[in-house]
Design a protein that fits this description.
131 residues, alpha+beta, four-stranded antiparallel sheet
Length: 131
């Protein structure tokens, strides 16, 4: 049986990007509002549009009321074909209290002063057979 190559294998360039994604997920899991929001670039616009300030208020409220967040980022793939930044696509498994979901998520990330930040975040599809 042939093995499928890992699209991220051998690319040290992707390490800082994946580290930033893992730090974002960790801040979300810890409910660390400041670290979580600091992962987003100043240019970030919420999916579906809307006001960044209102989005931040909603995120802070949700992080404040969520309990025992379990968030897993699975099988991230970094695509560097875009003109500005990179796109990271991964399976996201989220569980908190009685709520759970499993989605395919994309983050478009840009490098600012040596840090990779989220410029766009979108749910691409819902995963069936949620573990």
């Amino acid at each position: 049986i042939p093995a499928f190559p890992d699209p991220n294998a051998g690319s040290a360039d992707n390490e800082p990007v994946l580290k930033a994604v893992n730090e974002w997920a960790s801040a979300w899991s810890r409910r660390d509002e400041d670290a979580y929001l600091a992962a987003y670039d100043a240019s970030f616009v919420p999916q579906g549009g809307g006001n960044r300030t209102e989005w931040e208020k909603r995120r802070r409220l949700l992080l404040g009321v969520s309990q025992n967040i379990d968030l897993k980022v699975d099988s991230p793939v970094v695509d560097r074909s875009g003109a500005d930044g990179v796109t990271v696509t991964f399976n996201q498994f989220y569980k908190s209290g009685g709520y759970r979901d499993a989605v395919v998520k994309q983050l478009r990330m840009v490098e600012r002063d040596g840090r990779w930040l989220i410029a766009e975040e979108k749910v691409v599809s819902i995963l069936r057979g949620n573990p």
